Amino acid sequence: MCPIVSAIKPPYRPVKLGRDDIPGILALERECFAVPWSATQYHLAFGHKTFAAYGVKADGDLAAYVAYAELSLEMEIFNLGVRAAYRRLGMAKACSDTFWRVVPSSASPKAFWRCAPPTRRP
Question: Distance (Å, rounded) from C-alpha 118 to C-alpha 33?
Answer without folding.
Answer: 8
